[in-house]
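Structure tokens please, single chain.
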Amino acid sequence: MPKAKKSKPRIKKPKKHRGGCYFIETGTTPDYKNVLVLRRFISDRGKIIPKEYSGVISKKQRLLSVEIKKARFMSLLPYTDKHSL
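Here you go.
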């Protein structure tokens, strides 16, 4: 009888984000007036960082994107890197 082939062990992929949700750890919620916190979740080109990289939970990420858009509308944050404050 032929021998059964051994399967290769699976390698786990590392997670993309570091640590837990920032808003749960600090006990706060995203707010358009708190520009310093919102800047943490915007790339250098002005894009909103996805939750896989930022480590924010889904519920807070949806609220975060709304608050960033409010801050952009009120010109507290730039839309792109071409816009300067």
